[in-house]
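Homework help board

Subject: predicted structure for assignment chain

Our instructor gave us this sequence and asked us to write out the predicted structure in token form, then describe one feature. I got the tokens but I'm not sure how to describe them. Can anyone check?
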Amino acid sequence: MKRHTGQSLLEVLLAIAIFILGFVTLSAVFIDSGITNRDSIERSKANRLALEGLEATRSIRDRSFAELTTGTKGLIVTGGQWFFSGTSDTQGGYTRSIEISAPASDYRFVTSTVSWVSSNGLHDVTSFVTYLSDWQAKTGGSWQEPVVAATTTLPGNISALSVEVYGNRLYVTTPVNPAGPEFLVYDISNEIDPIYLGGLELGKTIFTTFVSGTRAYLASDDNPDEIKIVDVASSTNPTLLGSIKLTGNSNVTSIEYYDSNLVHFTRERQGKQNTYFIYNVADPTSPFLLGGLYLGGGGKDLALVRPSSPPVTILATDVNTQEFETVNTSNPSSMAVGGSINLSGTEDALSCAASGTTYGFLGSAQRNTTQEFFTLNISNITAPTTLGSFEIDADVNRMTRHPATPGLVYLATASSTAEFIIMDVSNVFNPVVYGSADLSAVATDVAVSTSTAYITTQDPSAALMIIQGGP
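My token output:
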């Protein structure tokens, strides 16, 4: 048989070339993977140091609020206690600085920043922020005597379901509105005189909203596109960017956004399908699911406990044996209920809020002769406990807090004599009513901007009520 030596040599050279190309490509993949892994480890350590900076500052606050002077500071441990020292501190190759500003005399805005040179030679930085109050001082101001400063009728003369304050803008949602938009934007540069700027008509009920930056996240009854992602950069012309599709037809009940492009939301019971979800919305036209969890029933409200390590979400549910639940969300793909509280009776929990990583607040549907408002210890997420309670004698539909008044929780209720209630929780073991206002209809939601509260109601002639502290 005749051998084609030239052809064989060519085949050998070609095989060697393919092998070398494959080896180089595989090596590049491994090198890139190694760099990515190192970057992830470095950022994780930086995040821990930044969170530690917030906790250290909180411990200094607990010792003496007067030590939280404004400026940029470093940290040092002396005698087992944290103190400020210099303008930064160094941990290995990481530099940490604590920046403190004073928006008001009785609370501080704290930013903990960590910078480092990454393994690929680039300068990198991470930071976390929080508010710290002078919790040992009396808080509340004039909220003991809140008064209705103004009422607003919405376009289409319709009731309202939710309200959100972001900067000098107010966002309101409504049921299906035959004569106007269901998502409305107001200018509140003058807090007691909202000016309607524009809206978005979807032809669907918008149950609630959460606004961050130039985006609003709307929870609607539009199956399967329940979550609407809206661009609000133009207040006069909000536009739809994308949506999140869900299976089934149960409604979304609460929604919050957190940095890293994560949207958290709950929905009502849908068989035994998931009722708590985390989605990545970096690309609003193509959001994708990071993880979901069946809460044992329907979720009614959620609050993100931030900053927290690990990240935690607290939830109000309709599960009769665990109306309050905590979830560690550090790994969204494998979430589980961490701890729970069983309230007596069968009434659903409806609303919740958090105060740092230590205290939570829970509101329920009306319970005959028993309490509807609860203060909770959430410092151990695997074993939360009830600290105190108060009988509202009505559904606590929604609640919120404001950093300027850390000792107060603001409630939107179904009470016939006090639809808006301000709870004093400075003594978490004995919460009491600090002030209240009698409105014309059931309050569906509440948002607070320092000295002004915005309440949405079921009264079409007064769907938005503006409330300020009395003299």
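Reply (TA_rk): Your tokens look well-formed. For the description, you could write something like this. The chain is about 15% helix and 45% strand. That's the kind of observation they're looking for.
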